[in-house]
Amino acid sequence: MKYDPASLTLRVVYVSGMVYDYHDVPPGVYESMRRATSKGRFLNRHIKGHYPFEKVG
Known about the structure:
The chain has helices spanning 27-35, 39-47; strands at residues 2-4, 9-13, 19-22, 53-56.
């Protein structure tokens, strides 16, 4: 997981190796995900379906 605060882009690399960029993710949401005990649960509840995304590569 990487975050670019300049573009508000969160890059997620899944266990399968697939890479997705989620756009317009506010810094506070990223910080909450970074602190979450379960990154996957946080991603499913607060990122997926809430922010535009694209598959990378």
